[in-house]
Design goal:
The structure holds three protein chains of three kinds. By secondary structure, chain A is an all-alpha fold. Chain A has twelve helices and four strands; from the N terminus they run ααααββαβααααβααα. Chain A has one domain (about 1-225). Helix content of chain A is about 75%, strand content about 5%. The longest helix of chain A is centred in the N-terminal third of the chain and has 29 residues, at about 1-30. The model of chain A has no long low-confidence stretch (mean pLDDT about 90). Chain B is of the alpha/beta class. Chain B has three domains: about 1-230, Rossmann fold (3-Layer(aba) Sandwich); about 245-325 and about 415-499, 3-Layer(aba) Sandwich (Rossmann fold), CATH 3.40.50.300; about 335-400, no CATH class. The chains are: A mainly alpha, B alpha/beta, C mainly alpha.
């Protein structure tokens, strides 16, 4: 029982950045501008959370900075892909490389350190105990006592869902993503909608990075995202860019991650095998969709 | 609309056209492909700016710079390609861009009510909560009309609205249109189907080659008169005597059906033969299955039924096999299907032979020397005006680009030649060259199938003409005796009119 | 861009660049080290270039690098009794084939089922990194070592050095040869003509009867093959073993190089040498001028951004139109 609660608690913890990043990618996918730059944006968020948080001595300001800094990076990406019509994938890769290089550069120039920056003076984001649930035996141990961003990540799913399906802006995003011409003829300001979707996603990506840097730990390391952005992207493909299913994908992939740690200790199952699953599941899902499309299709 | 002109590079799409519509009428705008109907309406809807001319609405001069202006003035247009978002629901599509709000949320209740009100008033019933991709085309069209009505459009432009509908859906649409008119709306109905004009329109304006031919009261006119206005006067018959075609069928289509991109059948049970040394023309307004027919023949589209080329069943054979066994194809799109505009002239000329000896060794190494020699030969033989075989194909004029295709296809000693719109966009000299080459193929005992929207071309070249309408062959006529009017009626789907 | 950044952070840009080029090209050993640094970039660039030329956006060369590196190392430490003249070609061949297959599979999915190759290859990159990491952590774990790496390859499996003490080895020559061969294939071979045509206008290629799916599959195989060789070059020529996570993203730099060279094989060779200079010079630059070597990464990113612009006006638009069919 304790093992189970531990795994589930761990799942929610490691799913936090996945959910936030997943919603960011989801929004970009909804406007048909898949944000490959997600890794770089998360890294930017992690970096600024630690640096600004430590500099100002306030972890909340660090949190705010993570959003703003990631949005700034997003703005570069958006400028290139929306206004300059740069290729989406190449620009995304470029932003990832830019973020990696720039942040490493700044670490050396500002802090004279390579790879890792750990200010030591910074507190983690606080953990939150949920009053009533806390008292319920099993539920309390699983759902209560997480970092604040874990709860924010759940809210981000609800937020994304409401945004997309309940507000005009969300409808416009879906319309722009699926049939830009139709959106234009209906008088929707396509460019503004695209910028908005990417920037909201950017803020969430920043938070995802902040969770890694000041939620789980209080340090920044060069490769701290470690492919999580792409796992989140995998979840988006798994969930066909729908908030609920994508969140489910994030939790599932989070579960794999939490399990692999336990499995490794308990049963000796190599951690890499469950870690590979999200990526394989996505390739499998895409193939299945394609096979179905082919069976339905008419032209050769 | 008064004195409207619009030029595109090389074409006058609208030449000083006057066009007026009375409130509360259904006004047909009739003409063949390329007559300038769509251009005129796109100007009215603000998608194009006219080079000359003015637009008046209820006596007042109107400046329409973009569709938003048009919408504000109460003008709405349903395009042939629907502008709907497949995964959004019917309701979401109708209100898209003008959603009713309740604080920051979309007010679904108000949305629903206003749509119900509109659909009751005009008899346009729709299931509001289904995503567009799950509703039939006829309903999608209703959604488009509701979209306009929701935006308070008074003047509705419908571009070939019946092209995608089943007969039952057409009846439904006509009921709706009548209802709209009795409610005080005005409708401009772009079409080439004269039967429909006679059925529901009050007036009809005919355009031909960008010029206004005339406006008639439908009640005082006849479909024969309209057909004549639409297709124009007779051309001179070719005087030269042709040797008769042989009786040997080279290309046989037996009960061919095929689905179009939308998943509906675009070709329905088509059967015909083309004999050696015979030219068979396919007439018809575009979009009635011509593209699909060419794709089926060339092997790019799946089909039911049997196609035989010189007694070989092609069903399971690849595109390359078909070409190797004597199928030559001039595709309808020179730039995307017929040529690689970024490639050299020589590469474009060799693309159906490069892998054969002597152009390619067993090792897979190409002999550019041989290829260049071959290309030079063809350049001379077909009089292709290019800076040699290494010139980039995209730099050539339309006529010379088409000559590359002709040279490539005709030099491979075909058994059958499929030519889709072979002279589209070409000047007179190039057109004559293409015609001469096609007749030369006929003399060489090739079975020739020509698909064209140009009736003069079909009459000049063909022995027989088949008319394709909504995926079926609705008539076969002798090219030596047929008149434009007869063809026009068949193309408009009026099979009874021709006996 | 680089100069602006250095000036902004109070460094002497001219001095830094002088040191950078000086240390990359200043001596025989420096030049050899530059060529060494260029080698994986040449391979990776060629892998990207050939795929792009055919209109296939293969991001999966990184995966092939890992697969190829492991395979070559495995051959190298398993068949220790084979003589070098046999073992080295065998190891390289094995790397080329497994690397090629790694990209061939998403190629098949693309060609036959129209599965987006960008997504599938990104995903498979991670699979390759994790799978090879698993291999050296478990079945091929070397006891007593903290780092995840395989056993050392047999001495005769090491690629011969061309200019000791630099590690620069024959894989550089293979890379140069590969660029020349590829240039020949693209220009003078049947496959080259086919892949150029498919890249220029896939619809036209289909209409003219070219075996488009086969061409895409072959191209993906060749693209991965170069990745495999890049990996083998590092495993047999530099590390002498497989090390988990050894690639700093060679394939992504390779994409930048291919874009910069507009997918020309010889251009790719030249651009890769340029990037090699930056890479090998940047470490020395850091020591002597305390301008961090990461500046070079920022420079690379800038180049890619502008390549992304160039790119969007070129063949990718046509490719979209073609595959939208």
């Amino acid at each position: 029982m304790e093992a189970l609660t531990n795994v589930l608690f761990g799942t929610l913890r490691v799913s936090t950045p996945l959910l936030l990043a997943g919603m960011a990618v989801l929004l970009s996918q909804q406007i048909n501008m898949l944000n490959i730059a997600i890794e770089g944006l998360m890294l930017a968020g992690a970096f600024s959370a630690v640096v600004v948080g430590a500099f100002l001595g306030n972890v909340w300001l660090g949190l705010l900075a993570s959003m703003l800094f990631a949005m700034l990076f997003t703005l570069i990406f958006a400028l290139f892909v929306i206004d300059l019509k740069a290729n989406l994938i190449v620009a995304g890769l470029a932003l990832n490389i830019l973020a990696g290089g720039l942040l490493a550069y700044l670490l050396v120039v500002w802090f004279n350190t390579r790879g890792v920056y750990s200010p030591g003076t910074l507190d983690k984001l606080p953990l939150i105990t949920i009053p009533i649930i806390d008292q319920i035996p099993f539920l309390g141990a699983v759902f209560s006592g997480h970092g604040v961003l874990t709860y924010v990540s759940w809210l981000s799913v609800i937020f994304t869902s409401l945004l997309l399906y309940r507000t005009p802006l969300g409808t416009h995003m879906r319309a722009v993503g699926e049939h830009k011409e139709a959106a234009e003829t209906a008088g929707i300001p396509v460019r503004r909608v695209q910028y908005t979707a990417l920037l909201i996603g950017g803020a969430m990506a920043g938070l995802a990075g902040a969770q890694l840097a000041i939620g789980d730990l209080t340090l920044f390391s060069e490769n701290m995202t470690n492919g999580r952005g792409f796992i989140a992207m995998a979840a988006v493909f798994f969930g066909a860019a729908r908030p609920g299913l994508t969140a489910l994908g994030c939790l599932l992939f989070g579960l794999f991650d939490a399990l692999q740690i336990r499995l490794q200790i308990g049963t000796g199952i190599p951690p890499q095998l469950p870690q590979m699953l999200p990526y394989l599941i996505v390739v499998g899902t895409l193939t299945m969709i394609a096979v179905r499309r082919k069976l339905k299709g008419t032209s050769i | 609309m008064r004195g409207i002109s619009k030029m595109f590079p090389g074409v006058i799409a609208n030449d000083r056209i006057d066009f007026s519509v009375e409130r509360g009428t259904i006004h047909a705008l009739v003409g063949e492909n390329g007559a300038g109907k769509s251009t005129l309406m796109r100007i009215l809807y603000g998608l194009y700016r006219p080079d000359e001319g003015e637009i008046f609405i209820e006596g007042k001069k109107a400046a329409i710079r973009n569709p938003q202006d048009a919408i504000r003035l109460g003008i709405g247009m349903v395009h042939q390609e629907f502008q709907l978002v497949p995964s959004l629901t019917v309701a979401e599509n109708i209100v898209l861009g003008n959603e009713p709000l309740k604080s920051i949320w979309v007010d679904r209740k108000a949305e629903k009510e206003s749509i119900i009100k509109l659909s009751k008033r005009f008899g346009l019933h729709v299931e509001q909560d289904l995503p567009i991709r799950e509703v039939p085309v006829g309903v999608q069209q209703r959604v488009e009309i509701l979209k306009l009505l929701y935006r308070k459009a008074q003047l509705l432009i419908l571009d070939e609205p019946t092209a995608v509908l089943t007969p039952q859906e057409v009846d439904g649409l006509f009921d709706v249109l009548k209802r709209l008119v009795t409610e005080g709306h005005t409708i401009i109905f772009i079409t080439h189907k004269l039967g429909e004009v006679m059925d529901i329109c009050d007036k009809a304006t005919v355009l031909r080659h960008g010029k206004l031919i005339g406006t008639v009261n439908v009640a005082d006119s006849s479909s024969t008169e309209l057909a004549r206005m639409m297709v124009g006067e007779e051309v001179l018959r070719p005087s030269e005597e042709r040797h008769p075609a042989s009786k040997e069928a080279k290309l046989i289509l037996d009960d061919i059906s095929a689905r179009g991109d939308r998943g509906l059948f675009a070709l329905k049970h088509i059967s015909f033969k083309v004999n050696a040394g015979e030219v068979v023309g396919i007439a018809g307004v575009e979009g009635n299955g011509q593209s699909e027919l060419v794709e089926v023949l060339s092997g790019l589209r799946e089909y039911e039924g049997m196609i035989t080329l010189a007694s070989v069943d092609l069903k399971t054979e690849s595109i390359r096999f078909r070409r190797e066994n004597g199928m030559a194809i001039i595709p309808e799109s020179r730039k995307t299907q017929g040529l690689n505009l970024l490639g050299k002239v020589s590469e474009n000329l060799i693309v159906n032979k490069y892998y054969q000896k002597p152009y390619s060794a067993k090792t897979g190494v190409l002999s550019w020397k041989r290829i260049t020699e071959f290309a030079k030969e063809l350049i001379v033989k077909y009089d292709i005006r290019a800076d040699g075989p290494d010139a980039v194909a995209g730099t050539l004029s339309g006529g010379n680009a088409q000559k590359i295709i002709l040279a490539r296809e005709l030099s491979s000693k075909p058994v059958a030649l499929i030519a889709a719109h072979p002279t589209r966009g070409l000047d007179i000299a190039a057109t004559q060259f293409v015609h001469h080459e096609i007749l030369h193929m006929r003399a060489e005992n090739v079975a020739v199938l020509i698909i064209s929207a140009d009736l003069d071309e079909l009459i000049t070249l063909s022995d027989r003409i088949l008319v394709l309408f909504e995926g079926r062959i609705v008539g076969e006529v002798d090219a030596r005796t047929v008149t434009h009017a007869q063809l026009g009626l068949l193309m408009a789907g009026l099979t009874d009119a021709v006996s | 861009m680089g100069a602006i950044m250095m000036t902004l952070s109070g460094k002497n840009a001219m001095e830094a660049y002088r040191v950078l080029f000086g240390s990359a090209l200043g001596s025989k050993t420096a030049i050899a080290n530059t060529l060494l640094a260029s080698t994986p970039l040449i391979f990776a660039g060629l892998g990207a270039a050939i795929a792009f030329r055919a209109g296939v956006f293969n991001v999966g060369v990184e995966g092939s690098i890992y697969i190829g590196a492991f395979t070559s190392a495995w051959v190298g430490f398993t068949f220790v009794n084979l003589p070098g003249y046999f073992l080295v070609p065998l190891a390289l061949l094995a790397a080329a084939i497994t690397g090629g297959l790694w990209c061939y599979f998403p190629g098949v999915l693309k060609a036959r089922l129209d599965v987006d190759e960008i997504v599938s290859t990104i995903m498979l990159n991670y699979v390759a990194v994790l799978f090879t990491s698993y291999l050296v952590n478990y079945p091929f774990r070397l006891p007593g070592l903290a780092n995840a790496m395989s056993a050392e390859v047999a001495p005769q499996a090491r690629l011969a050095r061309l200019s000791p003490p630099s590690q620069m080895n024959i894989s550089f020559l293979i890379a140069v040869a590969a660029a020349i061969i590829l240039a020949f294939v693209v220009k003078h071979m049947r496959l080259g003509f086919e892949l150029r045509t498919v890249g220029d206008n896939p619809l036209f290629a289909r209409w003219s009867g070219m075996p488009v799916p086969k061409v895409i599959e072959s191209v993906m195989f060749i693209s991965g093959l170069f990745g495999g060789l890049a990996g083998a070059g590092q495993a047999l020529g530099v590390n002498y073993r497989f090390i988990a996570g050894f690639s700093p993203g060679y394939a992504f730099t390779g994409i930048a190089i291919a874009l910069l060279a507009r997918n020309s094989p010889i251009g790719t060779l030249i651009a890769a040498l340029l990037f090699g200079i930056l890479r090998s010079g940047s470490s020395t630059m850091e020591i002597f001028t305390d301008v961090p070597r990461d500046l070079i990464t920022v420079l690379e990113a800038t180049v890619i951004f502008f390549a992304a612009l160039e790119f969007s006006f070129g063949w990718l638009k046509r490719r979209r139109r073609g595959s939208a069919h």
